[in-house]
Amino acid sequence: MKLSCFRIYDWSYFFSFYLVLSFLSFSTLKSEEESSFDSDFWTSRIVDFFLSDSNGMTHWIRGIVLSADGKVLTLSDVFNGERKIKEVKRWDFRPVQYIGWIVKDPEKNFLLLQVEGKSLSALRIVSRESWPANGGNEFYIPVPTPEEPRRIAKYVPKEMPEKDNEHLFFTGPTASVLLGSPIINEKGQTIGIVDWIDIQNSLVRVRVLDGPLEILDKADRLVEFAFWQENLEAIRKKGEQNSLLSSSTQWRNLWQGTQKNEIEKSADILIQLYPKLDVAWAAASANYLRLSLWDKADFAARKAIAMNSSDYHYPVLFAQILIGRKEWNPAIDALLQAREEGALSKEIAYPLGICLYKIGQYEKAVEELKSYVENRPRHVSAWILMGEIYQKMHHWEQAISAFTKAARLNPQSIRAWVGMADSYRELSKWEQASEAYTELSLLEPTNGAVWYNLGLVLLKMEQEKFARACFMRVIELNPKDRDGWFNFGVLSQRAGERLVAMDAYKKAVNLDPDFGIGWFNLGCLYQELHLYPEAIEAWRKAEKSLPGDIRPLINLVFLENHLHDYSQRDKDLLKLEGMDPRLAQQIRFKMATMNR
């Protein structure tokens, strides 16, 4: 990107200063804005339940109620025995509206609230590095109250004798705190979820969450493979209906075995014992697939299809094998066959969209994915893939729409925010792009590429002071970033900090001695500081590193004329004349006028 030149002496008309533009090519996701999406999007609100269990104990617990059907999706605690709801109290985090669900990780036994506010992710789960400056000593936990607005209690961190990398401890009022509550820092960012309360010592323990959030990613992966699991389960259930097959030891070992050799052996014996049962071949293929035994899985699936071509679960299984081997066209044929036999869009549209994308059939891929998200609108990866395809088609507005939906579903999705930023940049919507890159800087505060791109976007917005700060962050994170040093130098020079700029340019050319633009700008700065021998040396190196570029030669000619080094000036003029005779003639005329 060319920056406006500095005018230093008459010959400075030819001096130019440049900013290295190097936007990273992030993949992005996008989709068309369907009018029905937002109206169908599940909204929900936080609910506190006053429950009585089978032992007569009463508890306040916290959950989310989906407004779509009023069903409680999950609660923030689990009780044994019968639960009886005695009282229900509803409230919202103002101005935040809950649009997702609470995700419960059975391994770690904690919950996540997914929310949406005016900025898509009003409550962010962020890494510790982006907590407020100066320690961020005050934190807050919303507590239930029948009045509006809700009451928020204040907490301070407490050091514990034993180190615990997964938890933080806070002191403050505990009487009304509920498990599953978010704890919020001074920036309004969620840093963790309350998972243990010590009322007697006024102590709460918080499970620390780092972004990108692993729980939402895990949930998305489960959705992504749901259609495969459903298909394999349908094959297993079909086999269970055959009493002869389901009663055999090999059948039980096939599905219940844990050792690779045991499962493979059971599958081998099963098709030897029941070679005329199509479901035996399909079940064997499914388990060969579990073990990544591609050739055996392929052969068994083909046998099942040949014996029973009307069961669409078999070609879906065969497609899964082909996709695993990256055989996209045969996989498409298998999925289309499954559709002819009665497979639904929710079962095949997503893998079909992937295959069509892989072979460059972008419009057809988008149509399949649109059909898929009608049935599974919460699948983040599907929206992202759709956005990537729209990017390939240069449909940037549709791409932004898809990335926005992905970010609503998972505000911690790096790919969604990168996609939005990239697409806004393509449309020259610099303010929106800067907001997306800022979001990324919260999620990945040590990613130099994010700060680099944010600096370039801020430069487009003529926010040079903030852009310079971004490039300073780049070189702090990676002192060997040549372009980071160069751009920091350009903006320092424009800010009048010449010595800082000189040091930055020197760092850039030391990192890459063949960096022609770096030498060129360093020469311009030397000339501005009247360090003429150094300027000449820098421009000579720029000339050598930029073959065919006439700018260093032009600057050399004018500086040599200024220094009355006419012999060297004439030699360089001859070089310039060989490259651009007309320009050389204009320069001769200008210098003749200047020297009178």
TrEMBL record:
InterPro entries with a match to the protein in the record: Peptidase_S1_PA (IPR009003), TPR-like_helical_dom_sf (IPR011990), TPR_rpt (IPR019734), Ycf3/AcsC/BcsC/TPR_MFPF (IPR051685)
Domain of life where this protein originates: Bacteria
PROSITE patterns: TPR (PS50005), TPR_REGION (PS50293)
Keyword terms, alphabetized: Repeat, TPR repeat
UniProt TPR repeat ranges: 346-379, 380-413, 414-447, 448-481, 482-515, 516-549
Protein name as annotated: TPR repeats containing protein
